[in-house]
Structures are given as C-alpha cells and as structure tokens.
Design brief:
Elements (H helix, E strand, L loop, with lengths): L1 H6 L11 H28 L5 H18 L15 H19 L10 H11 L2 H6 L2 H12 L6
Helix pairs in contact: 2-3, 2-4, 2-7, 4-5
Length: 152
C-alpha cells in the first residue's frame, strides 16, 4: 500500500511526508489489521453460537484498541482533514464488523466508541468507497465461508 501511496501522489497524498507521521500510520495499520483479522475471520469461519458473547467481547476489545490508537487530533480522518492509508486499510475491516452485526445478529457496541463509529461512517460515505465496496459480493463470499460455522 505504501508503494501506491508514494507512487501516485498526483491526485491525493495518502501518506504524510513527515517520517514520524508515516510511521504512526503504518504502526496503526499493523495493529488494527492484526487485531481485526484475529477477531473477524475466526467468527466467520467457525463461530459456535455458544461463543457469541466471547466474540462480542473480543469485538469490544478490538474497537477499544482502535479508539485508543487514534491520534488525539483525529478527525474526521486519521490525518485530520486528509484521507490516508489508515482509511484505506482499516475501514474495510470495520465495515465487515457492520456486516457481522447485520447478518449474524452480533452486537457491535458502536455507541461506546463514537470516534471510531464517526470515522467509519464518514469514510464509507465517500464516493470512492461506495464505488469500490461491493457489499453484495463480499456478503456472498463471507456467507459461503460462514456455512462451515455459525450462521444466523
């Protein structure tokens, strides 16, 4: 992702030029990617209905970590007013939590994490997100994976 962000800077700068800010975004992306992958994919692949509460607790922990990792001057995007690789990398993971919430009867405590929720909502309203988020295809693919485990 860094290659694309650094190579195609004509229309938008997705990474700051400051090395420290760039490192913060990369660190954030790595933490969030690890946490959301460990939370989301096991639930889709293998969720036992008796472990639903355990899964919801791990979603809460993931959102808490994301919220705590957002910069203090955050908003509406990771870099303030500018879209960055943080949105490109993290928002699809959060959008998948919304999928689980709507299709798997999972409670995601968005109200407890208003910064994360606002960040997600602001980003998914962007035309670029809408034009590349093929929710129906994603739901079908994830639902096929979920057939081996918990389905609502």
């Amino acid at each position: 992702m860094d290659y694309i962000a650094e190579e195609f800077t004509d229309s938008i700068q997705l990474l700051p030029s400051d090395p420290l800010q760039k490192a913060k975004i990369n660190y954030f992306n790595e933490i969030v990617g690890t946490v959301t992958s460990k939370t989301f994919y096991p639930a889709v692949m293998n969720m036992d209905i008796s472990k639903k509460k355990e899964f919801e607790d791990s979603v809460r922990s993931a959102l808490s970590l994301i919220d705590a990792s957002l910069p203090s001057d955050f908003g509406p995007y990771f870099l303030g007013q500018s879209l960055s690789t943080a949105e490109i990398f993290v928002i699809p993971h959060l959008a998948r939590f919304k999928w689980l919430e709507s299709l798997k009867d999972i409670h995601v405590p968005w109200k407890d994490f208003p910064r994360v929720s606002a960040w997600l909502e602001k980003t998914i309203e962007r035309p670029a997100f809408k034009s590349t988020w093929f929710e129906k295809a994603i739901i079908e693919d994830l639902d096929k994976m979920g057939k081996r485990g918990y389905t609502n």
